[in-house]
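Students often ask why inverse folding is considered easier than folding. One informal answer: many sequences map to the same fold, so there is more than one right answer. In these notes we will look at a single instance of the problem. The structure comes first.
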């Protein structure tokens, strides 16, 4: 089985949650992980900083580079990419994980919140992809992975939270367009999305203390991401993957490992957009 030993991953929003889980899975192979996130100081409600994440990456067996990065700022992203290349010799993989969420209706969404979601989700994804591509063109098996949903344009996925849905689908549209644009260059662009809610500190904040009993562990996303990122980039691009479908196709049959003790499959909360 292919692994990510010696590969360099640039992961946005990797100070906690799914981004960190993907980094730790890669680190277990001996990868280099650039933790590109804003949290340098502990958050009042969300645990984890780029420095605590770096410790976890190194404990898992990888090398870490924690960088304070606001994916909305072009100069900062450019400098971070350059520092990653100066440190590790290149960039093999970009994971666009950073995201903002507000599950509010049109009249309840302040424009400041609308702007935040679109600047981080769409603009941040586009910007980080744009700045990474020159480096990815030099990589042996370059991948860009966006944590975004399949393009399912049904009204019920938009009507409760139009602004958020637009922002997340914008990330997926980057996959649709860039996969074809950079096909000849051999850079893979794929999307990954969970079938069910995934247990993270952000999910706890949104759903309350009991929500974990309806979630899968974040390791299901990191295992699924690992499958994508170890595929030949010229052969696997432009795909909108669902975590458990991808794992099942790869021969995984034990999904109990991704549930918390006492949680049954029927108790899991379906995620948005699937």
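Output (designed amino acids):
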């Amino acid at each position: 089985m292919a692994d990510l030993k010696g590969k360099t991953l640039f992961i946005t929003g990797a100070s906690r949650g799914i981004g960190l889980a993907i980094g730790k899975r890669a680190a277990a192979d001996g990868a280099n992980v650039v933790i590109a996130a804003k949290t340098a100081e502990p958050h009042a409600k969300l645990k984890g900083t780029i420095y605590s994440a770096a410790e976890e990456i190194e404990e898992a067996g990888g090398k870490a580079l924690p960088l304070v990065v606001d994916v909305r700022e072009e100069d900062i992203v450019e400098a971070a990419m350059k520092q990653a290349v100066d440190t590790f010799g290149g960039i093999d993989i970009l994971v666009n994980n950073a995201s903002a969420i507000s599950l509010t209706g049109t009249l309840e969404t302040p424009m400041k919140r609308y702007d935040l979601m679109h600047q981080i989700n769409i603009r941040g994804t586009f910007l980080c992809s744009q700045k990474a591509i020159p480096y990815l063109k030099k990589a042996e098996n370059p991948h860009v992975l966006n944590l975004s949903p399949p393009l399912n344009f049904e009204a019920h996925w938009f009507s409760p939270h139009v602004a958020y849905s637009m922002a997340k689908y914008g990330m997926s549209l980057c996959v649709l367009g860039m996969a074809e644009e950079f096909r000849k260059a051999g850079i893979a662009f794929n999307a990954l999305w969970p079938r069910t809610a995934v247990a993270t500190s952000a999910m706890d904040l949104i759903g309350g203390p009991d929500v974990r009993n309806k979630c899968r562990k974040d390791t299901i996303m990191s295992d699924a991401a690992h499958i994508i990122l170890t595929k030949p980039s010229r052969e696997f691009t432009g795909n909108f993957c669902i975590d458990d479908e991808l794992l099942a196709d790869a021969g995984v049959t034990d999904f109990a490992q991704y549930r918390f003790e006492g949680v049954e499959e029927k108790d899991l909360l379906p995620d948005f957009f699937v």
